[in-house]
Amino acid sequence: MHVSPSTGSGGTLEPVPIPNVIPLFPLPNLVFFPRTYVPLHIFEQRYRDMVRAAAASHQMVGMVLLKEGWETDYEGDPAIFPMGCVGRLINVQPLSDGRFNILLQGLRRFEIQHEMGTESYRQGRIVLKDLSQLDTALPVEVRKELIKVVAGFMRNRDDASALSALLRQPIHDDVLVQNLSFALDFTPIEKQFLLESESLLQQGRRLLDLLQFKIHEGHEQTGCG
């Protein structure tokens, strides 16, 4: 589990220009979210090329999830989910053998309109997809229930301390929901389901449903409840 090292409390991100064509970085087990951070180790040649190009220009990378069956065409262009998250390169550490360690900051959701194959790595023309502005904050009762259920879900887990610290911070609802979506122990498909929410309230309710299902599943496996 990786919780954002600097989530901030505000409800808005500083505006950052995002081009309508960005590199795509598909992975089989990572779904990225706005307002979160992720460290990555870059070793494949095509993604070394991607980091160099992005670092020298707009500093943007589009994180997307590979669809099931990607193993049969990994070196080619396996199928990907069309919705992902723009990550900004906020730290790039070149290594002596050509690899990189990078730190990405999640900025905005996007949807791929079509791919453009002019480089060794995949690129896509994108349209940014913001959550509905009808609900910029969670209802008080939903936030309280979410924090209560998360606390129960994390009880007796080895990685509970980092998330417990997040829950105690006076952070904006959007920061809370995005970091929980990213950090909690859900499958990649479940996280993709959260990423594709149309509003903050819908994402919060989906989080609650997933958490309650996981808790119920855990009780069944242990014979409790």
Order of helices and strands: EEHEEEEHHHHH
Mean pLDDT comes to 87
Beta-strand share of residues: 15-25%
Q: List how many beta strands DSSP finds.
A: 6
Q: Give me the Rg, rounded.
A: 18 Å
SS-based class: alpha+beta
Tell me the strand order in the biggest sheet.
1-3-4-5-6
- Helix segment count? 6
Largest sheet: 5 strands, mixed, barrel
Question: Could you list the spans in which at least 5 consecutive residues all have pLDDT below 50?
Answer: 1-10
**N-end to C-end Cα span:** 27 Å
Shape: globular
Helix content: 25-40%
Q: What does this molecule look like?
A:
- The protein has 225 residues and is an alpha+beta fold.
- Helix content is 34%, strand content 24%.
- The protein has a 5-stranded mixed β-barrel.
- Strand 5 (100-116) and strand 6 (123-128) form a beta hairpin.
- Helix 2 runs parallel beside helix 6 (200-222).
- The model is unreliable at 1-10 (pLDDT under 50).
